[in-house]
Design goal:
Length: about 325
C-alpha cells in the first residue's frame, strides 16, 4: 500500500513539474508567432484548444461525461454566468500574456505570476470573506512594497504583470465557485468563446490581414499547435493536483515564473536593473513567508507575538 502511495506521489510530482516547466518555457513558443497579431494568435489558441481537448475527451471515453456536465452547467443560470465570466477572464489573461511576451515584457509576465498567489488571497478576503493570518498579512504588505518600488522608480505601473495576476486570480476564484474539473472546465470555456474567435478569424481572413495559411507553413503549424501547448500542461496539472497535497502544488507553482524570469534575462536580454532585483527580492521574501505561514514554526511565532501584545496591553 505504501509503495502504491509513493508511486502515486512521484507520478503527481512528475506531472506537476511537467506542467509548470511547460508553462515556464511558453514564451519561447509565443515568440515564434511574433509576426502575428496577438488577437489573432488568441483566436486560434481558443479554437485549436477546444478541438484538441474535445479529441482528448473522445479518445479517453469522457466525451459523454463532458456533455452531461455541460448540460448541468447550462441548466443552472448562476453557474452558467460564472463559467461565461471565467471564459472571458482567461481570454483576457491569454491575450495579455501573448502581447507582453511579443512586446519584450517577459520579465513582467514572470512578476505577474509571482504575485498571483497573493492576489488570489486578496480576492478570497474580498469575495469569500476569508481571513488572513499575521504572516500572510506581512507577506502581502512586503509584496505590495515590491510592486510600489518598481512603479515609483520607473514611473509606470507594471500593468501587464498586475493584469495577469488579477485575471488569473479572478479566474481561479470563479473556477472554485463553479467547481469544474481542470480539463472539463477549460473545454467548456473554450467552447463558449469559440464562436467569437471564429468570427474574428473569418473577418481577418476575408479582409486579407489574417496570417493563417499566408505568412508561412511553419507559422500556420505553430498557430494550430497553440491548442496542444495549451492543453498538455493542463492535463499534466490535473494529474498532479489530483495526486498531491495543496502545499506541494503551492511550491511547484513557482517553477514557471522562475523559468520565465531566466528566459527574459538570459535568452531575450531584457533589462534587469537593481530596481528589478530589489523588487523581486521583496516578492520572493513575501512568497517564502506566505508559503511557510501555515507551518508549525510560524503559527507558534504568531501565537507568541499575540501573547506578548496581550500582556503588554494588560500591563498598561
Amino acid at each position: 500500500m505504501k509503495k502504491i502511495q509513493s508511486n502515486e506521489r512521484l507520478l503527481g510530482i512528475a506531472s506537476g513539474m511537467g506542467a509548470y516547466l511547460l508553462w515556464g518555457i511558453l514564451p519561447i513558443y509565443w515568440k515564434l508567432l511574433s509576426s502575428v497579431q496577438p488577437m489573432e494568435v488568441l483566436a486560434h489558441r481558443i479554437i485549436w484548444s477546444f478541438i484538441f481537448l474535445a479529441a482528448v475527451l473522445t479518445v479517453t471515453g469522457k466525451l459523454f461525461a463532458f456533455i452531461k456536465e455541460l448540460r448541468q452547467v447550462a441548466a443552472a443560470p448562476s453557474r452558467f454566468v460564472k463559467v461565461v465570466l471565467a471564459s472571458l477572464v482567461i481570454s483576457v489573461n491569454w491575450l495579455t500574456y501573448i502581447w507582453a511576451v511579443n512586446n519584450d515584457h517577459v520579465i513582467e509576465t514572470s512578476l505577474g505570476y509571482y504575485i498571483n498567489p497573493l492576489i488570489s488571497v486578496l480576492l478570497g478576503i474580498i469575495v469569500l470573506k476569508e481571513r488572513l493570518s499575521l504572516w500572510q498579512t506581512v507577506s502581502f504588505l512586503i509584496a505590495m512594497i515590491g510592486v510600489l518600488n518598481m512603479t515609483i522608480h520607473f514611473g509606470a505601473i507594471p500593468w501587464a504583470a498586475l493584469l495577469l495576476a488579477f485575471s488569473f486570480g479572478l479566474y481561479g476564484l470563479l473556477k472554485k465557485m463553479v467547481s469544474l474539473g481542470a480539463i472539463t472546465g477549460i473545454t467548456i470555456e473554450t467552447l463558449l468563446i469559440s464562436p467569437f474567435a471564429l468570427l474574428y478569424i473569418g473577418y481577418m481572413q476575408k479582409s486579407g490581414s489574417g496570417a493563417f495559411g499566408v505568412i508561412s507553413p511553419e507559422t500556420t503549424g505553430f498557430m494550430i499547435g497553440a491548442g496542444v501547448i495549451t492543453a498538455v500542461p493542463l492535463i499534466l496539472f490535473a494529474g498532479g493536483a489530483n495526486r498531491l497535497p495543496l502545499s506541494i502544488v503551492g511550491f511547484l507553482q513557482y517553477i514557471s515564473p522562475t523559468i520565465t524570469l531566466i528566459l527574459g534575462v538570459f535568452l531575450y536580454h531584457e533589462p534587469f536593473t537593481r530596481v528589478h532585483l530589489s523588487s523581486f527580492i521583496m516578492i520572493w521574501t513575501s512568497l517564502t513567508i506566505f508559503s511557510l505561514s501555515r507551518t508549525r514554526l510560524f503559527i507558534g511565532l504568531e501565537d507568541l507575538l499575540k501573547r506578548k501584545v496581550f500582556r503588554a496591553g494588560e500591563a498598561k
